[in-house]
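Appendix C reproduces, verbatim, an entry submitted by the partner laboratory led by Prof. M.T., so that reviewers can inspect both the input and the predicted structure.
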Amino acid sequence: MTFPQIMASGHTGAERAALDWAVTNEVPNEETSNEDFSDCTETNVLRSSGTVIFTLSAKLGGRSKLTVKLARKHQKPWLHIHRKTPMPGMMLVSFIVYNRLTCLNVTGSTASEEPTIGYFAQQVLDQACGLLLDRETGN
């Protein structure tokens, strides 16, 4: 299984980092745009096959809570990965494989709320991509 397409609006630090990571790693990606954050969030939840929410804090903030609410409403799988999540790369791979994701909506904290969120999101995406590649090659 290859890494799924990344979908994000780029409104938050986690989203921008995921889009940048996708370009760097030649992973298909789509930057969605809409001035209204709520509309954009719902569109991304609906168009993707699952959502990952990156935060440093274990507690979800307002924007992330909206994403969870919409994912539940539309019966879409979602995963919250935060700084204290054990083996976050493996958690993300399990989520992708179990749900057979082809398009991963990425969202999470803003850089103003959590300045190192971009670095964290990219680290987890790197780990997950490496694990998926190992899985494909049988290593």
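DSSP finds five helices and five strands in the chain. Additional entries are available on request from the coordinating office.
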